[in-house]
Design brief:
With about 220 residues, chain A is mainly α. In chain A, about 85% of the residues lie in helices and about 0% in strands. Chain A is built from eight helices and one strand; from the N terminus they run ααααααααβ. The longest helix of chain B has 14 residues, at about 140-155. Chain B is about 35% helix and about 25% strand. The chains are: A mainly alpha (about 220), B alpha/beta (about 280).
Chain lengths: ~220, ~280
């Protein structure tokens, strides 16, 4: 079964490539948040510099997927896997872009007096990283149940965002001199909220891959 | 987005239960079919319905019974000695194996195209006219010519042969010969066309023409095709049935079979991980 072995090898390589992309995106979030909480602008710049490598991984996923479509004509579970991966790669790349935006905000914020330690934003970052790790784990195991559990956590991020939004608006009114920094922090919270949405997309693709069930836009 | 309500996580659209085709009247209804070559059972308790004006593909590994089943649909197996059939096959509600069933009429109604094109060593015109003449289906020369032209047009061959109708059919290319055989089947106005790997001996361009023809023909005819080429089944058929060792494993819409089949055996076969 030589042909099947080649297909399996190609699928394994594609999976490994998208997991590398996912791992890089996860690291980018963690480091961007660390650069913010520890006021480490050098680390934030590292995140930005590494983004090109992440973009190249997305291109590599595309190229490998096109080769599989053209040369192997995948069907059924293989087709669903390749389809899911091709949709997942740009989502992961966008997650990394949001991490870069957080890193940029960190560089700006780190050059100004420190705001009060914003634990809830840090908590949002932890949840976003943990959700992405869970989503990639569910994808690797083709585990739709685990993917659905990760989706449920998006509401935690949304709730935190709502709280932070109101708190920062209130601070802007009370202390106009910190408004610029408050706004930057609000953008960070918004980036994390969007990352939660993107992780949800990844989990929906895992459910499709594992069960052939389309839950997108249905929850 | 954050305004999204709390997930219910219940799929509203599940491709596993999705069949895109609108309901059609049943053209062929096979019930509890067993077929034997001597002591060897080739088909085991097959039940399948084929709606009118759709393309049904039979797929499966060699020896799975798909061609045997195809040939039972116009009683082509009757000519093979020591064969036996149990169960029923109804076309338009009439059991074609009933005592007294008219086999000649059945074969007029259910035409067949074979793997290897088999034109008669006659002219292009005479090949298509042959069935019309021996069945006396036309009353004059003008009507005969009209029917031949219509059949050649339906088989997407007219433009290529209209100036060489008197040439030998054997002078045509392989793909043209196969479409000539389809025209010959269409000339007697069947309702069902059985195709046994009709493009397996053709090059990709000729294969594409046959596949396009199949898609066009389903507007008028019910088509059952046996193919080893799974991509071909995916391209031309509305419904696909997967057979294994004489058993029908799964029948479903073609898109479902090729994206999310219900049965693991089907999935293993179409993903090439069989055996």
């Amino acid at each position: 079964m030589e042909i099947h072995r080649h297909l399996d090898e190609d699928l394994d390589t594609l999976r490994d490539t998208v997991l590398r992309l996912g791992g890089e995106a996860e690291t980018a979030i963690r480091r961007a948040m660390h650069s913010l909480s520890e006021r480490d602008s050098a680390e934030a710049r590292d995140v930005l510099e590494h983004d090109d490598a992440i973009d190249q991984l997305e291109v590599e996923v595309d190229r490998r997927a096109v080769d599989i479509f053209a040369l192997r004509q995948p069907a059924a579970r293989d087709l669903r896997f390749v389809m899911s991966v091709t949709k997942m790669a740009p989502v992961l790349e966008r997650i990394a872009d949001h991490a870069c935006n957080i890193a940029r905000a960190a560089i700006d914020l780190n050059s100004e007096p420190e705001l009060q330690n914003h634990m809830r934003i840090r908590r949002m970052g932890e949840i976003a990283s943990s959700m992405l790790a869970g989503a990639l784990d569910a994808f690797t195991k083709r585990d739709a149940i685990a993917a659905r559990e990760v989706i449920k956590r998006d509401s935690e991020i949304n709730d935190l965002y709502n709280g932070i939004f109101h708190e920062l608006i209130e601070m802007m009114v009370k202390e106009p001199s910190t408004a610029t920094r408050d706004a930057r922090l609000l953008f960070v919270a918004k980036h994390l909220e969007r990352i939660g949405d993107y992780v949800t997309d990844i989990c929906e693709l895992t459910v499709y891959m594992a069960e052939a069930a389309v839950i997108k836009h249905k929850h | 987005m954050m305004s999204t309500p709390t997930p219910t996580l219940k799929p509203q659209f599940d491709v596993r239960s999705h069949v895109s085709q609108a309901p059609r009247a049943t053209k062929i209804d096979v019930r509890g079919l067993n077929f034997y070559y001597g002591r060897s059972q080739a088909l085991k308790d097959i039940s399948i319905t084929i709606p009118e004006r759709m393309v049904m593909a039979f797929i499966g590994p060699s020896g799975c019974g798909k061609t045997t089943l195809l040939r039972t649909l116009n009683r082509m197996n009757d000519v093979i000695p020591h064969t036996r059939l149990e169960g029923s096959i109804a076309i338009d509600g009439e059991n074609i194996y009933a005592v007294g069933a008219d086999v000649v009429e059945l074969r007029r109604k259910v035409g067949m195209v074979f793997q290897k094109s088999n034109p008669f060593p006659k002219s292009v015109f005479d090949n298509v006219a042959y069935g019309l003449k021996i069945n006396r289906l036309t009353s004059n020369k003008h009507e005969l010519e009209d029917r031949v032209e219509a059949a050649l047009k339906d088989a997407a061959l007219w433009e290529e042969v209209k100036d060489r109708l008197k040439s030998s059919a054997l002078s045509l290319s392989g793909g043209q010969q196969q479409r000539l055989c389809i025209a010959r089947a269409l000339a007697i106005r069947p309702e069902v066309i059985l195709m046994d790997e009709p493009a397996s001996a053709l090059d990709p361009i000729a294969t594409t023409k046959i596949e396009e023809l199949i898609v066009d023909l389903k507007l008028k005819y019910t088509i059952v095709i046996v193919t080893h080429n799974m991509q071909q089944a995916a391209r031309v058929s509305d419904l696909t049935a997967f057979f294994l060792m004489g058993k029908l494993i799964e029948v479903n819409s073609t898109e479902k079979i090729f994206t999310a089949p219900d049965e693991k055996l089907t999935e293993d076969y179409i993903t090439g991980r069989f055996g």
